[in-house]
TrEMBL record:
This is UMP kinase. The keyword Transferase applies. It comes from Spirodela intermedia. One of its GO terms (cellular component) is cytoplasm. One of its GO terms (molecular function) is UMP kinase activity. The lineage of its organism: Eukaryota, Viridiplantae, Streptophyta, Embryophyta, Tracheophyta. Pathway: Pyrimidine metabolism; CTP biosynthesis via de novo pathway; UDP from UMP (UMPK route): step 1/1. Its EC number is 2.7.4.22. The keyword Phosphoprotein does not apply. Residues 9-218 form the Aspartate/glutamate/uridylate kinase domain. Belongs to the UMP kinase family. Keywords: ATP-binding, Kinase, Nucleotide-binding, Pyrimidine biosynthesis, Transferase. GO terms for biological process: 'de novo' CTP biosynthetic process; UDP biosynthetic process.
Amino acid sequence: PKQPYKWQRVLLKVSGEALAGDHKENIDPKITMAIAREVASVTRLGVEVAIVVGGGNIFRGSSWAGCSGLDRSSADYIGMLATVMNAIFLQATMESIGIPTRVQTAFRMSEVAEPYIRRRAVRHLEKGRVVIFAAGTGNPFFTTDTAAALRCAEINAEVVLKATNVDGVYSDDPRSNSDAHLLDTVSYQEVISRDLSVMDMTAITLCQENNIPVVVFNLAKPNNISKAILGERVGTLIGG
Ligand code: UDP
């Protein structure tokens, strides 16, 4: 039967920074629980949800590369491992409120999570399970935003929903330009040419090439995640 909601299958990107909130540790359990509750409410309605988690709350490869001789690739592998920690935390939180959840990692860690197998991920989604993709793309020099775009295309999800700490995409940097305003919609091309720094270029061009719309929205506002997943207007829609 046709889904009554706008999207049948979504890819939710949760950055590490968003998971941290204002908690003094790396993860704020209130935030993971809020995410779990909102995801639970929409999976019950039949929308399939896959999640890509970031790791920036624990380790960001680019800011450590070069430190004490750490090369970029090694730093990035540590960053990817950080995403696995977030994924397992989120999985445990989701399962504690009864949402069956699987973590799939981009490189093997079979004792803690399944390896990424596309067809298996799709099968989990079809069965109503949430799938969390961890370890980014599995390659250094990439980001979890790019992993979100890639996995979205691979599993035929219809949209990337990027949960952030800001309300959406602004016409300029609101910290330096007081005239900057929140955009309702914006084209991929504008994001790229005006360097609106919402996602890195690799991620945004991958979305553009595959006609994947991206919704950028604030995770801190109550019900925003479920609204975004159900296709209600929140934040900024990047498309066309
Ligand atoms: N990373 C990587 N390849 C990927 C995804 C992530 O090397 O495909 C590493 C990179 O070092 C990055 C870190 O993992 O800094 C954490 O991911 P990201 O910065 O994208 O997390 P977020 O900003 O969403 O918290």
